[in-house]
Design a protein that fits this description.
Shape: globular
CATH superfamily: Flavodoxin domain
Keywords: Flavoprotein, FMN, Oxidoreductase
Largest sheet: 6 strands, parallel
Organism: Arthrobacter subterraneus
CATH class: Alpha Beta
Pfam family, one: FMN_red
Number of strands: 6
InterPro entries: CE1759_FMN_reduct (IPR023932), Flavoprotein-like_sf (IPR029039), FMN_Rdtase-like_dom (IPR005025), NAD(P)H-dep_FMN_reductase (IPR051814)
Strand content: 15-25%
CATH topology: Rossmann fold
Number of domains: 1
Mean pLDDT: 87
Oligomer: single chain
GO molecular function: oxidoreductase activity
Helix content: 40-55%
Order of helices and strands: EHEHHEHEHEEHHH
Number of helices: 8
CATH architecture: 3-Layer(aba) Sandwich
Length: 208
């Protein structure tokens, strides 16, 4: 049975982080939805807080340190992506934007993406539609219809807010799982063959 790879990117800055909690909840819900359809699933979580220095160095030098390079490769090779950001000044975090700035701008083409955010007020939920969704549409990803926002009222165990959050998570995870099948094969066909190192290309040109 072929394994589908789901990568979860958490842009939370704190420890503990509500963004990480929501990321874990969405990753597990997506795994359940896919395995309910007999699709074996591997879920990998990338915590951007741990890569902050590497991301900054990449922006300055143009080269990704090994840990960041592995994270970027995981995202590019995923069958689906879940991205969770805290809300800062009415938008997603600068760290999250910087991570996707150093990712190849064709890496997410046709990839199913679920977007989510956490914040201190329900008013901040609009960020998902006016800021975060346009980012991934620009990157030519396929963004699921249901975006998930979690505020302070959504974290009380057994509360009405927590139940409503679980419903939103399940609905969004189901939409993402539904996109995964049929998309993986398309993305494999679209991926270009690995190019030769520059030195080998130069040697070929000089040898003509």
């Amino acid at each position: 049975m072929e394994t589908r790879r789901v990568v979860v990117v958490s842009g939370g800055m704190g420890t503990p982080s509500s963004s990480r909690m929501l990321a874990d909840q969405l990753g597990e819900a997506t795994r359940r939805e896919l395995e309910r359809a007999d699709v074996h699933t591997d879920v990998t979580t990338i915590v951007l807080r741990e890569l902050a220095v590497d991301i900054a160095n990449n922006l300055v030098t143009g080269f990704a340190p090994p840990a960041l390079a592995d994270a970027l490769k995981s995202v590019a090779e995923a069958d689906a992506l879940i991205v969770v950001s805290p809300v800062f000044s009415g938008s997603y975090s600068g760290l999250l934007k910087s991570f996707f700035d150093v990712l190849d701008n064709t890496a997410l083409e046709s990839m199913p993406v679920l977007i989510a955010a956490t914040g201190g007020s329900v008013r901040h939920s609009l960020m998902l539609e006016h800021a975060m969704r346009p980012l991934f549409i620009y990157l030519r990803a396929r963004v699921v219809s249901t975006a998930v926002y979690a505020g302070p009222e959504d974290w009380g165990t057994g509360s009405r807010g927590a139940d409503a959050l679980e419903q939103r998570v399940t609905r969004a995870a189901g939409e993402l799982a539904g996109m995964v099948e049929g998309t993986a094969a398309v993305r494999r066909r679209q991926r270009p063959e690995a190019s030769l190192p520059f030195e080998e290309l130069l040697a070929q040109v000089q040898g003509r």
